[in-house]
Specification:
Elements: H1 12-19, H2 23-29, E1 34-36, E2 42-45, E3 51-54, E4 59-62, E5 67-69, H3 71-76, H4 85-93, E6 100-101, E7 108-109, H5 118-129
Antiparallel strand pairs: 1-2, 2-3, 3-4, 4-5, 6-7
Helix pairs in contact: 1-4
Amino acid sequence: MSLFDEKGRLTDKAVEYAKNVPIVEYLEEQGYLLTQQGNSKYFNLDDHDSFVVDADKNMYFWNSRQRGGNIINLLQDEELFGMKFREAVIELNSKNNQRIQSDHGINWKQKKKKNPTLSHSIIWLKIQVK
């Protein structure tokens, strides 16, 4: 799937894919701790109990801040990730948040990790060789 069209704009497919990345999984990958409310579809951030994720709808709501939305809105939230729309869509389309490249070779995004695993290093090296 191409992230960008011939003019360098994000494709509708890239945006749709980004919206469907599970919020719970993404937050856990980023190191946030979540607790499921019983056997329900709701999860709370351990650090912010007013932050609730509805896993079935893939939506969040931060009750104490009166904010919420989909995962793209979450990544745009200045208190959490502070990304621009384009950055959020690119981030969510990158497998395991590794470096990605558009078909046109002009748009790169790298998620820096303090301790990259060996497999991530190998992937990164393969991309460098291309």
